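Translate sequence into C-alpha cells.
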Amino acid sequence: MTRKAYNRVIHNGKEYRQAIVERDDNGNILRIYEFSEEEPFTEWIGGTIKLQ
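Result follows.
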C-alpha cells in the first residue's frame, strides 16, 4: 500500500483539500481523506491530482 498527500485531490466531481490518497499494491484507490496533521508513512507530493 502507498499513501501520498496532495494539496488538492479531485475525484468523481468531489474536491478534497489537504488530502491523502491510499492505494493498494495494484494501484487501486482504497480511500481518500482530508487531514490536518502529519500522517506517518505518507509521501508528500503537493499540487493537484485529478483521479478518474
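Note: The chain has no helices and five strands.
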